[in-house]
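User: Can you fold this complex?
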Amino acid sequence: MVTDPPCSVAQVLTPDSRVSLVAARGLVKRFGDFTAVDGIDFEIYRGESFGFLGPNGAGKTSTMKMVSCISPPTEGSLTVLGQDPKTKGPQIRARLGLVPQEDSLELELSAMDNLMMYGRYFDLPRAEIKRRATELLEFTQLSERANEKADNFSGGMKRRLTIARSLISDPDLLILDEPTTGLDPQARHLVWERLYRLKSEGVTLVITTHYMDEAEQLCDRLVVMDRGKIVAEGAPQALIQQHSTREVLELRFGMDGHGPRAAAVADLADRVEELPDRLLLYVGDGDEALAAVHARGLAPLSALVRRSTLEDVFLRLTGRTLVD
Amino acid sequence: MTTNTTASTEVTQVATTRPVQPTLGWAPWRRAFWYHATFWSRTWRGQVISSFLFPVLYLASMGLGVGKLVNHHSGGVSGVTYLEFVAPALLAMTGMQIASNESMWPILASFKWTRSYWTAVSTPITPRDLVIGKLSWVAVHVAMVGVIYTCVLEAFQTLLSPWAVLLPLAGVLTGLAYAAPIAAFTATQENEKSFPVFYRFAIIPMFLFSGSFYPISQLPSWLRVVVQFVPLYHGVAICRTLALGQGSLATTGYHVGVLVALAVLGAYLCDRNFRKRLEA
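Assistant: Here's the predicted assembly.
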């Protein structure tokens, strides 16, 4: 394990150099009687984009706070950038970038001044902060509003500014806690596009999300969390292959319940999930299954054939949906 | 496509060229200090003007109004004119006022609304740096205002002793004896409900009963005992000693000791409460 790599992030991209940046063993976080994180193990390698997928309250944010060396673990061992957060917190944080779940910009200050202020926390020289801030505002497409108060910014712009801020120290590891929660679709796509660009530049990303599409788009590898525990780990596609079928047929019937219909189609699918508003049939070929449903004289109000997603993996593993 | 290429080149630069690494440097708290200074500097002009105006109005009303009455009826207080008696108290009162203002809403805001403390602790800054940064900012803020006030006091010819040059420091000490315990309390609060109550039932009575406007010998004996627990009383006593050149070393030592003890205890509690909250 490299303990103090002063090497540049761009040297990372050889796929075999599995340099461990974060290693957690039996990590536990308790708040009083409540166990937010219940003994999890994971390892994050240099250059990859690693995700924590799970519903609200799964323990993702608590995990992020431990990885960002803000909140100490209650139990277990944690190594970040080869060092122990207990004794080297400030040293490690000097090389992390954090995009917190809640925006915490100085709304009274301009976009540029927000970056200047944050850069000073890292003790960077003013001229250097200024140079980086200019580049980062360009990168986050905020250059034209650099001198405008952050208070005037839309949700998406604020989030982009927060991302720019987190990059001011040129971090070895960028941690994003729910980076697109609360953003409209267009703003989300802009954030994803920028994150994707960082990822392709070799920046190591750690992302928590309860959006399965975000996880699928951005993460090379992820863990699925539920109630403080990791229930699955792997690449998004591998997880889908392992825990779900190729396609899903979604059927909506009237409001009079799906129960009897579920029984009537059970033999057509590998597995049938009954949700409050629809039936999910896990099948290899959705169109074929739909034809069979029609052949049985069942007339759903609507039918949709789609590919399996991480949402289906989560449903399979926990019996619940990600977003309620 | 062109813009994309430009942007990605820039990121490559950001990612590959690392001419300057973040450092821990000396005393990280000074960066938390600059945070406050930055915000203050945005409105300093207005503040400097009011810093001149307030003592002038205070001295004019106390000296010319109340003072005339007191001097006429009892020939001054403790051997000096009424204006000379009340003027130095201004430093201690201002120390209390600035310190309590700085330690309630702004600190709660940094925890809850702007979340700037959370922002800071995601960088190399620690909760302790925030405490030291905040308290040292309060000290500098009170000192700056204190220097102006002392000049105004001198202009009104109320300073009778060369020790008066230490008046800003007495203001700072009074300020810290308030700022540290109040900040420690604020760090435990979830909303601002208790602040107006604290103002009405603590700050204002202290303002009225701490010997700023009359010697505490005028108070009933039980209240004189209570006043010993009020930091402002000690601050006023120190300021008066410095301005008038009266008072013994022993009593001054007692007053300074009480304020230092409060500031130290408060700073200890601040450190504990900030850490408890931010490292949860």
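Chain A touches chain B through 47 residues (CB under 8 Å). Confidence is low (pLDDT under 50) at residues 1-14 of chain A.
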